[in-house]
Each structure stands twice: as structure tokens, then as C-alpha cells.
Amino acid sequence: MKAIIFSRFFEEPYELNKFVVSCGYDFFDNQNYDIMFDPRIVEFCEKRLSPLWGEMVYKGKENYKFRIGFAGAGYIRDINVNKNWIIKYNHVDSPIITYVDVNTNKYGYTRLLEK
Q1: Phi, psi of 22 (to 5 degrees)
Q2: For the whole model, what pTM was predicted?
């Protein structure tokens, strides 16, 4: 299933906020998984991708506080939602989807094992 994963410092452009509200959400929240997996929002962002660090991303609003000219980015990822997954980040803070198994021993100690 396609999703858009927003970086931690993502600030939505006005056009995205307006579209998210038109889809029935009260406001944009970059940690709202319903928004991240909503096919309408994924498609909206996919039509507005720009190159960054060797991949196409949806750039946040113009902002020079981060020295790159925009506030964070949204990354399109295909995620198998039938498996447990976590997000790791590479050297340029691009999200990497990692599938995991949850392992709990008889003492309650829990760890994530990469598949």
C-alpha cells in the first residue's frame, strides 16, 4: 500500500493543508497515519514531486531555517501493511521501511528482530 512518510521537520505548504482539509480532515498532522495512507493525499503529493538526494520527494513549505530552502519532505513508500514494520532513516534522513518480528521472552523482555 502506498503511503507518504513525512520527515520530522516537515511543515506543510498551504496547498497541501487546503487539500487535506478538503478531504475531510480537521487539519494537517504529519504523524497522522490516516493522512499518510490516504490514497487521495498520496496521489496529490505524487503529482508534485521534486528531486532531492537522488529520489523524488514532496517538499515542505519554503523555509530557509533548515538551509535547504524548504521545511522537510514527504517520501512516497510502498508498505506491506500486513507485516509489522518500523521506520529507520539513512544518512540524509530519508525513511527506510524495515519489516520486523516482535519477540517477547518468558520474562517479558521484548525486542524487534529485522526480517
Answers
A1: -70, -20
A2: 0.88
